[in-house]
Amino acid sequence: MDNKNYLYNNVKSKERDEIISIIKNYEHPRAAIIEALKIVQKYRGWVPDNLIFFIAKLLNITTIDVEEVATFYSHIFRQKVGRNIILICDSITCYINGYKEIYNKLKLELKIVFGQTSPDKRFTLLPVCCLGNCDKSPTMMINKDTYNNINIKNIMNIIEMYK
């Protein structure tokens, strides 16, 4: 089996068709990288290595070009993640206002550290450098929901909503 057939056989037709359709919207193929990554993640929940290679071949660019974009953005996941993604802001403002205590509470209760997924596959815990809510810190996101002024008293009530 040649490389091209292998690539196409491991890509869902919806993924392939959507990526091909967005390419024509961009003058330069590199401009389509982030949208292609978002499409893959929409269908799989993360972006596996073989799809980095597929996107690169489709856009006629290097895999390093695609990987650089994929690893730059904190909302593109390069490993399998849990059903709920917890992003905890670890900026200086959140740090000063109690980030460390919140992280320690989540670590204890969920039995995971940054970069890990809980054994029941419900939660993945990740740091993020800023969520843009410094005036309401500490802040975290679970999936697309933002929570401000979190503390060790209310953190587990928030987590319970996602179990």
From TrEMBL:
InterPro entries: NuoE-like, NuoE_dom, NuoE_N, Thioredoxin-like_sf. The keyword Transport does not apply. Composed of 13 different subunits. Subunits NuoCD, E, F, and G constitute the peripheral sector of the complex. Belongs to the complex I 24 kDa subunit family. The keyword Cell inner membrane does not apply. This is NADH-quinone oxidoreductase subunit E. Its cofactor is [2Fe-2S] cluster. One of its GO terms (molecular function) is 2 iron, 2 sulfur cluster binding. Binds 1 [2Fe-2S] cluster. Keywords: 2Fe-2S, Iron, Iron-sulfur, Metal-binding, Oxidoreductase. It catalyses: a quinone + NADH + 5 H(+)(in) = a quinol + NAD(+) + 4 H(+)(out). It comes from Candidatus Johnevansia muelleri. [2Fe-2S] cluster binds at C89, C94, C130, C134. It comes from the Bacteria.
